[in-house]
Structure formats: C-alpha cells, structure tokens
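Onboarding guide, step 5: your first structure request.
Type a short instruction followed by the sequence, for example:

Predict the 3D structure of this protein.
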Amino acid sequence: MTARNARGSAPLRLVRKHSQQAAESARRAVTDRAMRPAPKPPEGIAPARTLAAHARRTLTGATRVARWAQAVGTPSKVAAEEAAEQLGVTSAEIVADWARARLAGLIELHGGRARPGWRLRAWDSDDGAVLRGWVALFDAWSFAHPAPETQSAETVAEVIEAMPQLLALLHLTGGPVREPVLLDILRQRVAEIRTERCEVPYGDEGLPVPGGAGPVRADDAALPGLLDWALTAFASVGALVRAAEGEESTLTPLGHWAVWTKIEQICVAAQSPAGGNIEAPAAAMLRGCAGLTPRPARAEYRAWFAARPTAGAVAELLEAARGDDALLRGLAFEALRVAGAAGEQAVRGVLGEPVLRPYALLWLAEQEGVDPEDAPGVLSREEATWLWVDTAAAVADHGEGRLLVRHLDSALQPTVPELLAEVRAVGHPRTVQVLVALAAAHPDPALAKAVRKAAFEVHVGGA
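The system replies with structure tokens like these:
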C-alpha cells in the first residue's frame, strides 16, 4: 500500500490560505479538548505533580545542558568537552543529554545556534509543560537511544511497531513481567506485522510455499538483542526499570501514565484559560483566551487593546509571537486583527523575520482586502510548508493525536513523500517533534513508518 493510498484517494491540499488558519487549527486543539471532560485516571496512576517530579528527575541532565547551552549556542565537539568539564560529566553524557534536550523541546536550533524552548522557561513552574516535554521524549525513544547500526533497518522498524503491545501488557499486568515472556510476545507481534503486510514465503525454486510459514528469516535471530535494545531505550527515558539480572521489566509511574494516556487517547496535560486577561501581558492574555471560541476571544482582544496604547499593544503581541509556542503565534496574529490598519506598519516591519513572515503576509493580504482563495501567491511554497509545520507544532503541543492526523489534510503537497521531503527542507526547529508526534498518532503503520524514518533522518542530520 502506498502512502498516498493509505490516506485515501483525495490529495493533500492547502484547505484555507488565510491569516486565521494556524489560530483556528490550534484553537480547535484546545477547545475540542475543553468540551469533553478528561477521563479520571484509574487507581494506581500517580498524580500529575508526582509524575512531573519524576519527569524532572529523569531529565535532570538534559535540563542542565539546555540551560548551559543558552549562553554558548550549539555545542560543537569542543563546546561539548567544555560543558563536560564545567558540569562535571563526560563528553558522552553531554552528547546524550543534548539529544534528549532537543527531543523534549527544552532547546531548539535556530540558524545554527541553540536557544531555549518555551518548555525550558516553564520547567520549574508548569507541571503540564514538563509532562508534555517528557512525552515528546517518550514518543522519540528510538531516537534517544538509537538501534545498533549492524541491525537490519527493516527488523528494527518491526520491533518499533511492535513495542506498544509489549508496553500495554506491562501496563495491564501492573507489575514485573519476565523478559522471556516479552520476547515471545515480540516474536508473535512481528509475525503478525509481516502477515499484515501479506509477505508470502517462497521455496528454493522461487515458488510460493502453499500455506507455509516459510523459513525463519536470518534476522529473526536478532530479536532478542533488539528487545534488549528497546527495553534499554525505554529505561533510558524513564518509562521502565529492568531488574539487575535483566530478567524482568516493570513500568515506572511515568510509563504507566504514558501508556494509559495513549490508550485513552487524551491530551497529556490540560491548559486552563486564566482570568484577568485584560490586565495580563500579551502572552498570558493569549493563553487565557486559547480555550475560548472566536467571538468571546475577539471581545477579550478588544478589551485588552482598549486598556493600553495601540502601538504598545501591537509591539507586545508581536513579541509574544516571536516565542517558541506556535499556538501563541497563531493567536497573536488573530488578536492583531483587532488593531486593523493601526498595526500595519509594525506588521510590515517583521516581514524580514522568517518565523513571523508567513503570518504577516497573510495578515497583510487580509487587510488589503485580498481573498486568499483567489491569491495563491500570497505565500511561497516554502513559506506555506513552514506554516504547516508551525501549526502542526501548536496542535502537537496543545491538542490530541487525531487532530494532528487531521491536520495532514491541510498540507499543500499532493503526496505524503513530497510533504516529508519539503518539510525536511524548510528547516523548522520543531520538525523532529512534529514528525515523531504524527508517527505516534497516525493509525496507518506504513505511513507512520515513513514519517518516523523522516524524523530520524532530520534528527541525525541536524545533530
């Protein structure tokens, strides 16, 4: 099955090219979640505060190297050695912590230099941000601890696809499970995956073996080693612990919580609208309005503008849009619609900033009365792709996986391979996290595998 057929016959398309696109996609992620009460965690799932404390301990090294990197930029080999000396750890630990910090969204690369992600700034005060960061790392476990290069890439992909079933068993068991049992289940699941792909065993003469299971593939002997790799990888991100003898594995409280949230298909953390929006700074006001539907949000924006000079309010919104939270970026330009022509000069002034340019172009087109449906040249293909990734980052951070899957249909590219190629080329700092989240959420194994492969190639290429 091709990636395109897996999605259905309709081509990918840019559904709506106007300045509200990103804000509406991100808002749907929040309001859709807010309309449904979150299911109560079952007995045995630790409280969010306890889980966040576990996540902070798990990511202590990543947080430490992220804070250090704020001042020095992207660690080169020399910088890694300098960090190791200053932080009292080995260079290898710095490299591993650097990778975890990137995968967890604690640091992002912009123009070859590192800068703190929004989660790092909220790390000590926002348990929800901590848990979202840890889940991003959990979803990217095979990047945080890559498989041995000597192993078959196909078999590694099969093990990655099979691991959710093993995690579900560990979760439902509630206690330690012997690793020989996990190996048996892994073998069964890999066999099912191959059957689902309609692999037909062939005999020595090149003819199909009727009803036969076929010979054991040479790389089946690698499954015990790959199970050891996968369990070690999940242990490295804090999702499970292994007995000293290596014979049993048990999910940690974080692991139980993560598997439960995946099973229940709910958002990792809730984000409640805050009160006092009129007196709040721009970023806090936008967060407070994120859960509102468009009409009440617009009334809040008007009241917020009325309480301060327009020029200062426009500058404050643009500063909020420069941050690392893509949800706030989309909402900031939605709020700027209230300013109208009074904000035009300031918005034109940010056209040279790649992060804001797509939003600014669409906002200006709307102000000039251009119907984006009749003006496909408002954004270049690269700018439209960048905006797609930025919006996907907002949905990944604040919404559910099914909304991220739905966002796939708003892409400009006609096929998934073309989308992945162009997404990789635009160099958005959240590309890896977006692709990992999409791969984790998409129900089609073939498409998820292709997206996961693209994410890995971006991660390795940008390391």
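Each response can be followed by summary notes, for example: The chain has a mean pLDDT of 79.
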